[in-house]
From TrEMBL:
GO terms for biological process: intracellular signal transduction. Gene3D superfamilies: Transferase(Phosphotransferase) domain 1. Keywords: ATP-binding, Kinase, Nucleotide-binding, Serine/threonine-protein kinase, Transferase. The keyword Nucleotide-binding applies. Its EC number is 2.7.11.1. GO terms for molecular function: ATP binding; protein serine/threonine kinase activity. This is non-specific serine/threonine protein kinase. ATP binds at K71. Belongs to the protein kinase superfamily. STE Ser/Thr protein kinase family. STE20 subfamily.
């Protein structure tokens, strides 16, 4: 049993998917949620993130003037995804994973209030500033692996590791966010469909329906490998139109993407990426194993302290 947010909870609770309740009973369904209008407590300012499930707004606390990020997701009584996301966020507590500060439910919407992280998502950063340096990538890799190891120890896999879901705060700390697709490692039924974002998805996840075997937590390691190339080159190594074309691609293709050879990358970075992008999931390392790779000892303090000073870089 592990402790998250000050409560002793069993991760097994997650697999119980209650399907029948009234919206008025939301506080029974999601523990610790406040059923009240968030605009009584926050002034919603600009939209800073628009993902596939929700919108994230910058918001000012009306009492203190403090700034927050609030994720707003439509929520009706039968929706499982936002409910799981909130429950998982309430249970996990680690410096490399985003925690909720408060959760509200009001008029069929969930509001997840979090620390506002500036400069924000890695994808925003490379789109504005270009490719990352190798020492920056090494730092991100280590921090993400630490967060993933914690999630795995808890019995979860994230399933949507990508540059949009890894964010940096003003202290240069790296946080994994967006637990909307996070799954329970043992829940094989849940693994019969490809879940994640196609371009970052491990081959075995994209083939889940075809093979019907399920997959495991090292699917996140593949996605991290793709993200590392993405940061190094400021573009994705594999692009598909439509994105779902990746499913057929991996049924035919048997070679992993690689770092572009035009730039001088260290041997340890190349070997790290190669290891993360091991095609065979039974040979691919877990977060715990990959944390021992020498690439992770390259940098121990954040290289991101000055990014926030760049006025061009803001969230959104
Ligand atoms: N705490 C935060 N601080 C700053 N930006 C954030 C924060 N949380 C999310 N974002 C931004 O909002 C985007 C969407 O949030 P996310 O939780 O990933 O939603 P979705 O589930 O819709 O993808 C992220 O990619 C990021 O750019
Ligand atoms: Mg997201």
């Amino acid at each position: 049993m592990l402790t998250g947010c000050g409560h002793d909870v069993s991760p097994n609770v997650l697999v119980k998917k209650e399907k029948h309740f009234h919206d008025t009973d939301i506080h029974v369904v999601i523990d610790g949620i406040q059923v009240k209008d968030p605009t009584n407590d926050f002034l919603f300012e600009e939209l800073i993130g628009n993902g596939s499930f929700g919108q994230v707004y910058k918001a000012k606390g009306l009492q203190t003037g403090e700034l927050f990020a609030i994720k707003v997701t439509p929520f009706r009584s039968r929706d499982i995804t936002p409910k799981q996301e909130v429950e998982i966020m309430q249970r996990i507590y680690h410096n490399n994973l985003m925690s909720p500060l408060a959760i509200y439910y009001w008029k069929q919407k969930l509001y997840i209030c979090m620390d506002l992280c500036c400069p924000g998502a890695l994808s925003n950063l490379y789109r504005k500033l270009g490719p990352f340096e190798e020492n920056e990538i090494a730092f991100v890799a280590k921090e993400v692996l630490q967060g993933l190891q914690y999630l795995n120890d808890f019995g979860y896999m994230h399933r949507d590791i990508k540059s949009d879901n890894i964010i940096i705060n003003e202290d240069g700390e790296v946080k994994i966010t967006d637990f909307g697709l996070t799954g329970w490692i043992e829940d094989r039924e849940d693994q019969k469909e490809p879940i994640g974002t196609p371009q970052w998805m491990a081959p075995e996840v994209s083939q889940a329906q075809e093979h019907g075997k399920g997959y495991s937590h090292n699917c996140d390691i593949w996605s991290l490998g793709i993200t590392m190339i993405e940061l190094a080159e400021a573009r994705l190594p594999l692009q598909f139109d439509p994105p779902e074309a990746v499913y057929t691609f991996w049924s035919e293709q048997k070679a992993s993407p690689q770092l572009n050879g035009n730039k001088e990358w260290s041997n340890s970075f190349q070997s790290f990426v190669q290891s993360a992008l091991t095609m065979d999931p039974s040979m691919r390392p877990t977060a715990k194993e990959l944390l021992k790779h020498k690439f992770n000892s390259q940098i121990n303090i954040t290289p991101f302290t000055n990014i926030f000073l760049d006025s061009e870089v803001t969230t959104g």
